[in-house]
Fold this sequence. Notes:
This protein is 53% helix and 15% strand. By secondary structure, it is of the alpha+beta class. The N terminus and C terminus are likely disordered. Keywords: Membrane, Transmembrane, Transmembrane helix.
Amino acid sequence: xxxxxxxxxxxxxxxxxxxxxxxxxxxxxxxxxxxxxxxxxxxxxxxxxxxxxxxxxxxxxxxxxxxxxxxxxxxxxxxxxxxxxxxxxxxxxxxxxxxxxxxxxxxxxxxxxxxxxxxxxxxxxxxxxxxxxxxxxxxxxxxxxxxxxxxxxxxxxxxxxxxxxxxxxxxxxxxxxxxxxxxxxxxxxxxxxxxxxxxxxxxxxxxxxxxxxxxxxxxxxxxxxxxxxxxxxxxxxxxxxxxxxxxxxxxxxxxxxxxxxxxxxxxxxxxxxxxxxxxxxxxxxxxxxxxxxxxxxxxxxxxxxxxxxxxxxxxxxxxxxxxxxxxxxxxxxxxxxxxxxxxxxxxxxxxxxxxxxxxxxxxxxxxxxxxxxxxxxxxxxxxxxxxxxxxxxxxxxxxxxxxxxxxxxxxxxxxxxxxxxxxxxxxxxxxxxxxxxxxxxxxxxxxxxxxxxxxxxxxxxxxxxxxxxxxxxxxxxxxxxxxxxxxxxxxxxxxxxxxxxxxxxxxxxxxxxxxxxxxxxxxxxxxxxxxxxxxxxxxxxxxxxxxxxxxxxxxxxxxxxxxxxxxxxx
Length: 570
C-alpha cells in the first residue's frame, strides 16, 4: 500500500497545512529589540547591588528574542533587561513567554514592582500563555529592568522576553488566544465525540483515544498556563507539576492502549503486542510512585519519566509503521497524526536542553499539532465507526437471511411478523403458508443440487409477485411463509391463486408426468391471534390444500379449495 496515493491525499494536505502554520509562527516570532544579561542569584544580595554590578561588569548576555534556558539555581536567576535607543515614553508591557511554573519578580532599583507566576491568581496582571508586567510610564525606557526568576522545584522553561506597547501586546495576545482556544476546542471536541462513539458502539478504542486527548490537552494547558489564565482553574494551582507528570505518563499509556486496538497490532504485528502493552502498564506505575510522596520513589519516578516517555513514543511509532506496512489501514491514520507530534515533542525537549533557540514558535506549534492530530485520528476513528457499523449490519443481514434463497429466515420472519401484529387491528393481515408439492421426489430423482435450484427459483418468483412491504421468508425445508398487510380474505385468495400459477409456470419437472407446484394455506388474523396461532392455522389450511389434490390455495374457514388447473396455469 502506498501512502502517497489518492486515498491519503487529504492527510498530506493536512500535514502541509500544519507545516505552513509552523512557518507562520516562525515568521511572527520577531519582537522589540532588547538586550538581556543573566546570572545566578547569590545569597543575601539586594536588587540595587545587582543592577550596580551589571552596570560596571555586564553579566553573560543572551538574545531575549531567542529561547534561553535559564540555570535552575536553588536561589534563582537574575535577568537584566535593557532597551537600546531610541527610547519612547509611555506605559509598556514586559512579557515572559514559556516561563514554567515558578514565580518571577520585577524590580525597579530596590523597589518591587510586581511578583507573579502562571498559576498566580492574585491582583497582579495576568497574561495568556505568558507572565506579564506593566512597566509604568514613571520608569524611563532608558532605565534597565531587573527580573528575578525564583528557584523552584519546576525549572523555568526556555524563555523569551519582549517589551511592547499596550496596543501591540493586546494585538499579539488576542492572536494567541484565538489560536490556543481554537486548538484546545478542537482537542476537547474530538475527545467528546470519541466518548460518544465509545458509548454508542461500546468500543473502548474510542474511550482510550478520548483519555489520551484529554491528557495531552491537560499537558499543553499546564505548560502554556491556559488552564490558569484564561480558564481560571484555581483549583489546579500548586498541583500543576504533579498533574503534568501524571498526564504525561498516562498519555503514553492511553496512546498505547488506543494504538493496540486501532491499528490492530494483535493481527498485523503480534510480536510487538507485549512490549506495547507493557508500556501501557508501566507508565501508570510511575504515576503511583510520584504520588507516594516518598523522596526516593518520587525521584525515581521523575528520573524514569522522560526516558520512558520517549521510548514508548518510539515504540508506538515503530508498531504503527510495521502495522501500516503489513496492511493495516487505520495504522496510516495513526502515523499521520502521531509522527509530526512525536517530532515536535522531541524538538521541544531539545529546546529545554538549550538547542533550537531560533525556533521560539515550537511550544505553540505543539499545541496546534495536538489539534491537527486530534482531527486526523478522529477521521480515522470515524472511518473505523463506519467500518464497524457496516460489519455489524452485514452480520445482522447474514444472521437474518436464509443463506440459500436470501429470504428472511424463520427467526427473523417471526420477529418482523410480531412487530406487525403489535401495531394493532387497524389493518387486516393475512398469512400465507407455502409447501412445494413433490419436492422430496425432485430431490430423490434429480439430486439435492436440483432441489436447491428449485428453491432459489421459487423464492425469486414469490419475491417478484409480492409487494416489497410484504414479509416473505423461508420457514424451513421446502416451506415458505408470507405476511400481507392491508389484504382482506378475497384479495388474499386472489394473490395465493396467482402465486400458484406463477410457481407452476417455472416449468420445473419432477418426473415426466409431474411438475413442481405449490400448495398454499391462508389464515386471516383475528383479535385472538398471535404469530404462532396464525402460522398454525395457515399450516393446517395448507394441509387441506394438499389433501384436496395439491397446486391450490385454501383459506382457513373457507368452504372448498380453489383449484388451479394445468390449462389455467399456462
